[in-house]
Amino acid sequence: MSTPVLFFVDDLAEGLEPSAQRFHQADPTAAQINVLDLSVTRGDGIFETAGVQHGSIMALDAHLTRFAHSAAMLDLPQPRLEVWAAAIRAAVAAHEPADMLSAKFIMTRGIEGTGVPVGWVYVFEGDEHDHEREHGISVVTLDRGYRHDVAQTSPWLLQGAKTLSYAVNKAVLREAARRGAEDVIFVSSDGFVLEGPTSSVILLRDGRFSTPALDQGILAGTTQADAFTILEAQGHTVEYRQIRADELVGADGLWLLSSTRCAAPVRELDGAPVPIAREISDALNTALLARTK
Amino acid sequence: MSTPVLFFVDDLAEGLEPSAQRFHQADPTAAQINVLDLSVTRGDGIFETAGVQHGSIMALDAHLTRFAHSAAMLDLPQPRLEVWAAAIRAAVAAHEPADMLSAKFIMTRGIEGTGVPVGWVYVFEGDEHDHEREHGISVVTLDRGYRHDVAQTSPWLLQGAKTLSYAVNKAVLREAARRGAEDVIFVSSDGFVLEGPTSSVILLRDGRFSTPALDQGILAGTTQADAFTILEAQGHTVEYRQIRADELVGADGLWLLSSTRCAAPVRELDGAPVPIAREISDALNTALLARTK
After folding, report:
1. What is the pLDDT of residue B293?
2. CA–CA distances in Å: residue B44 to residues A81, B40, B91
3. Nearest 5°: CA angle at A33, between A29 and A36?
4. Which among A165, A172, A175 is the nearest to B166, CB-wise?
5. Does one domain contain both B138 and B270?
6. B266 pairs with which residues across the strands?
7. What pLDDT is attached to residue B1?
8. Judging by beta carbons within 10 Å of its beta carbon (0-12, 13-18, 19+), is residue B223 exposed, middle or buried?
9. CA-CA distances (angstroms) from residue A151 to A25, A114, B176?
């Protein structure tokens, strides 16, 4: 495994003291974060993870847009996106070349009491996902506990923001493992398909590709959006809509989409087999892996 | 403000490599945490905050018990409670004397990929709470989004564990501030009183003191438990039960309880005045502040 690269972003958000430098490199093996940083003590911050294919950062604008949206939802200062983009590009350039890298960027509320956010970019070579794209994944549905409309009724629950408070997103993967599965599709308490803990859902049924409408407290998937563009260009019909959980039974194809894994076909859902739409799946992944921005 | 004290716990959990030392002091002003620590990136860990009155740690056993319970809920290794207790006592002893201190202790899942938790104790002098105990606080009720029985139906949502994923607990305080209030009482999506973001609720109505039954996905309040012991000893009737949100209207007294604030009377709920049961409130706080363990 190659050596990861860490860049701290200095001039990171609006309304803060100007910084002499925009960003700087740091040692990822050294301790860098204070025990009072609110990311540590409260999971109070936001993040994004972009895929980097052959040195090209995928969907960077979409990730930056979502980062700014998450900041607004958490009442954080607005990130200076042009500085973040430059820091991300510099960190990727400082990493030794690889087929696929991940560029994770984080902004925390900073050390408690200071009101000054802390931010960094971490570029690393993650796991290979060829096997999942080829052979599919086993998934269970789990109740997310919230109604589908909770983002409208109760915005303080931060559904739709990509925060650092991801203990539940990790706990559901352990629950999936206990059930002999590898991943999860969240279902709302009133029975609608939402998203995975780190992915978006696309369903193929009756010749149409559907993904859950974005007003249901879920993240706008950057890879899902690119996949819809690709599928439309290939002549398929795509739609954002409410999807009932029982529609997943009898799917003609089902995928979890995320930045570096791309489109992982579901081969088993709650213990029952799901067909892998092989030709469609391979064509979709070939196109996703060939994106150059 | 006095200088905080930081102790890392080395021999911190069952099933790990034995450590030559049990704990050691560190510099809280220096960076101590790696950017890959799962507390930073995922809010993946647990914590407790005990009050320390005149050098005596309040309800330490109850905090340690809850810490172990949270660890089990997150599938973390079981903390070695005797080591944690010794580290907490040592950190408190290393702090300069003060009327009231807070001892916060944290165990994270550690640096991603290592499987080795990281833990520490942080002792500090927090804010004064005399004004809140004397004059009361303004509170709003906010929907927690979950049904009251979610801990039974969906344990992977970690309700009832005290985790580091507290972004929502901070967001609701900002929502309260937008509504001109200082604190929050969470209500379940099906209309039952739950808890505050960092406190327990006690309601006085019809001569009885009630707190929400603990099987509703809430934390077992250490200060609330001591308060019930005190109230019973003073001849009052106390009960754990389901409390409907509409029962808060027309309360004869209402308190939020937490370790260092003790019993903060609510003087206003959702904009309507709530009587401060002055004699009861003062007697309760006097007793809570006089606890010697």
Report:
1. 63
2. 28, 8, 24
3. 155
4. A165
5. yes
6. B137
7. 72
8. buried
9. 37, 29, 17
* Domain range for B261: 130-289
The fraction of chain B above a pLDDT of 70, given in percent, is 100
Interchain proximity B32–A33, CB inside 8 Å: yes
A114 and A189 share one domain: no
Is B150 in the A-facing interface, judged by CB distances under 8 Å? yes
Same domain, A281 and A185: yes
pLDDT of residue B18: 84
Nearest to B39 by CA among A196, A127, A45: A45
Asked whether the beta carbons of residue B167 and residue A164 sit closer than 8 angstroms, the reply is: yes
Q: What is the mean pLDDT of residues A216-220?
A: 97
Q: Which positions 172-231 of B are in contact with A (Cβ < 8 Å)?
A: 172, 174-175, 189
Neighbours of B53 (CB within 10 A): 20
Restricting to B residues 49-88, those with a Cβ less than 8 Å away from any Cβ of A are 74-75
Rounded Cα–Cα distance for residues B87 and B10 (Å): 10
- Count Cβ atoms within 10 A of the Cβ of residue A248 and give its class: 0-12 exposed, 13-18 middle, 19 or more buried: buried
Task: Identify the helix (H) or strand (E) that includes residue A283.
Answer: helix A278-289
Close Cβ partners of A19 (under 8 Å, ≥ 6 residues apart): A10, A11, A12
A293 pLDDT higher than 70: no
* 3-class SS of residue A82: helix
Which amino acid, one-letter code, is at B274?
V
Dihedral sign, CA of A68, A71, A75, A80? negative
Are B274 and B266 within 8 A, CB to CB?
yes
Closest partner residue to A158 among B38, B153, B171, by Cβ?
B171
The number of distinct structural domains making up chain A is: 2
The rounded distance, in Å, linking the Cα atoms of B89 and B57 is 8
C-beta of residue B8 within 8 angstroms of C-beta of residue B119:
yes
Chain B residue with minimum CA distance to A121: B35
Q: Do residues A136 and A259 share a domain?
A: yes
- Cβ neighbors of B150 (< 8 A, separation 6 or more) are A145, B157, B159, B188, B217
B27 at the A interface (CB within 8 A)? Answer: no
Determine contact: B114 vs chain A, CB below 8 A: no
Instruction: Collect all residues with Cβ–Cβ distance below 8 Å to B125 and sequence separation of at least 6.
Output: B1, B2, B4, B98, B100, B101, B102
Which residues in chain B have Cβ-Cβ distances shorter than 8 Å to A159? 145
For strand A237-241 and strand A208-212, is the pairing parallel, antiparallel, or unpaired?
parallel
Domain harbouring B214, CATH code: 3.20.10.10
ipTM of the complex: 0.96
Per-residue confidence (pLDDT) for residue A90, from 0 to 100: 98
